[in-house]
Write a structure and sequence with these properties.
By secondary structure, the chain is mainly α. The protein folds into two domains: 3-19 and 134-201, Helix-hairpin-Helix base-excision DNA repair enzymes (C-terminal) (Endonuclease Iii, domain 2); 28-128, Hypothetical protein, domain 2 (Endonuclease III, domain 1, Orthogonal Bundle), CATH 1.10.340. It has helices at residues 3-16, 28-38, 43-56, 60-64, 68-75, 81-98, 107-111, 118-128, 138-147, 155-165, 171-184. Helix 2 runs antiparallel to helix 8 (118-128) and helix 5 crosses helix 6. Bound molecules: iron/sulfur cluster. Iron/sulfur cluster binds next to helix 9.
Length: 211
């Protein structure tokens, strides 16, 4: 690992040590559903929705028994709610019947569930199962490419490159550091470079820096 990357990771850890997902959940199954809902939405919005949904239907078996239109009513303020409702019902049914209400243990099994992509699988594995993984969402993609931790045009390549430059034992934590930095300082429209502790190591503000 080069000195610049080492420094970036140290500063991020110092800023965001112990940070966790902002999603509220009581079980791995609820984390999976909340993460599915969070695509194209905010964690804040998802928490408002799931607070009511999980109070009424907290398990895979319970959710699998409600109708699509009922579920749509619960989640209609979240982006793409119609397709999410269908996928959540199918996924809940599979989890209730095939996995006895718990989430599958492997990435490939998780990714076989309707509506579960690699990012969602990585979030759930890393948080609920403590499997080292870097889920590349919009914040992780933007911040890591601006910083020059990655230099990639898509999330798959970004994940590959991050896994090479970040030590494996830090993958899951680093995912949270990058998300929180993206939320607080390195925002999509107006990154606050003036007040960013990473400014001297960042490829966005130092065009001569490379990976
Ligand atoms: S210096 Fe600017 S672009 Fe670089 S990480 Fe900080 S806020 Fe983002």
């Amino acid at each position: 690992m080069n000195q610049r990357i080492r420094k970036i990771l140290l500063i991020l850890e110092d800023l965001y040590a112990g940070s966790e997902t902002a999603l509220i959940y009581d079980s791995p199954f609820q984390l999976l559903i909340a993460t599915m809902l969070a695509a194209q939405s905010t964690d804040k919005r998802v928490n408002i929705v799931t607070q009511i949904l999980f109070k009424d239907y907290s398990t895979a078996a319970e959710i699998s028994r409600i109708s699509v239109s009922q579920l749509e009513e619960y989640i209609r303020t979240v982006g793409l709610y119609k397709s999410k409702a269908k996928n959540i019902l199918l996924t809940s049914k599979i989890i209730a019947e095939k996995y006895n209400g718990d989430i599958p243990a492997t990435r490939s099994e998780l990714m076989e569930l309707p509506g579960v992509g690699r990012k969602t699988a990585n979030v759930v594995l890393s948080i609920a199962r403590k499997v080292p993984a870097i889920a590349v969402d919009t914040h992780v993609f933007r911040v890591s490419n601006r910083l020059g931790l990655a230099n990639a045009a898509n999330v798959e390549k970004t994940e590959e490159q991050l896994m090479k430059v970040i030590p494996k034992k830090k993958w899951s934590e680093a995912h949270h550091w990058l998300i929180w930095h993206g939320r607080k300082i390195c925002k999509a429209r107006n990154p606050d470079c003036k007040h960013c502790p990473l400014v001297q190591y960042c490829a966005y503000t130092n065009k001569n820096l490379t990976l």
